[in-house]
Design brief:
Blueprint: E1 2-6, H1 18-21, E2 30-31, E3 34-35, H2 36-46, E4 53-56, E5 70-73, H3 79-93, E6 99-104, H4 112-122, E7 129-135, H5 136-142, E8 151-153, E9 156-160, E10 163-167, H6 175-183, H7 188-195, H8 197-204, H9 210-221, E11 225-229, H10 242-260
Parallel strand pairs: 1-4, 1-6, 4-5, 7-11
Antiparallel strand pairs: 2-3, 6-10, 7-9, 7-10, 8-9
Helix pairs in contact: 7-8
Length: 261
């Protein structure tokens, strides 16, 4: 399948990372000697599941590369528009493509074997969307003090993964609802409000299991969906704040030293 890498974000002055980017692309922040997105592209390069890589929001002048065939698409503005444009490019490359990976450029810890695990796990079924979550114990064991935004479910706290799989038909169906859900991706309570007041109340009182959330979201949108519970924290360790940038710089610098010994 093809991978669509979203890299169009440029932090505004009120954004926590603005002091590090100063009007430049977040994806190009330096981490352990290379741009943050390059770590993601390196993982996709070595993934057996990935055919083509479509980079949204950067140009060839950025200097990033990939061992798989790769293509640059200009920033389309909103995230949903970028995803739709990426899916259309995938269909142009091969009309037989059914599924694509949607990968954020700010998860530099992701590894090729993790990408392959996700592709294999998702394709065990034939759903329209596969949305990943990372349980809190897995995240906090791997990245203590990561300070993620947690969704409090019945018996489980989770954060969202930033690499997911969708069917290509999602580029043309239910776009208004997707726009609302993606726009509120950093606020689980607002997302629940999009689905319905009853869901919001149940989430507030921690009466929803992960299966309940999936069923309600998919019923609202009218598609088949499946939750993917990640055993790897790297999928949810996105760099949103300066302390997370510092954590990943230290983590990947140590990894780099270990591989050169």
């Amino acid at each position: 399948m093809d991978a669509i890498v979203t890299a169009g974000g440029i932090p505004l002055p009120e954004d926590p990372l603005y002091s590090h980017t100063r009007g430049s692309s977040k994806a190009l922040l330096e981490i352990a000697g290379k741009p943050m997105i390059q770590w993601v592209l390196d993982a996709l390069s070595e993934s057996k599941a990935v055919d083509n890589v479509i980079i949204m929001g950067l140009t060839a002048q950025s200097g990033v590369t990939c061992k798989k065939p790769y293509h640059f698409i200009p920033n389309q503005g909103r995230m949903l528009a970028n995803i739709v444009a990426g899916i259309k490019k995938s269909q142009e490359l091969d009309p037989k493509n059914e599924y694509v990976l949607i990968v954020s450029s700010d998860i530099p810890g992701i590894k090729p074997e993790m990408v392959d695990w996700l592709a294999k796990t998702c394709l065990e079924t034939q759903d329209d969307i596969y949305y990943g979550v990372v349980p809190r114990p897995i995240m906090e064991k791997r990245y203590p003090n990561s300070k993620r935004t947690w969704t409090h479910l019945k018996g489980l706290d989770v954060c969202g993964a930033d690499i997911n799989v969708v069917h290509v038909r999602m580029a043309s169906e239910h776009l208004d609802t997707w726009e609302e859900l993606i726009g509120n991706r950093k606020n689980p309570l607002k997302q629940a409000g999009v689905i319905g007041l009853d869901t919001l109340l149940l989430l507030l009182f921690r009466q929803l299991a992960i299966e309940d959330i999936v069923q309600r979201v998919m019923a609202r949108i009218g598609v088949r969906g499946r939750a993917i519970i990640w055993p790897h924290a790297e999928a949810g360790m996105d760099v949103d704040k300066p302390h997370q940038l510092g954590m990943m710089r230290a983590d990947l610098s140590a990894e780099k030293r270990d591989t050169t010994l």
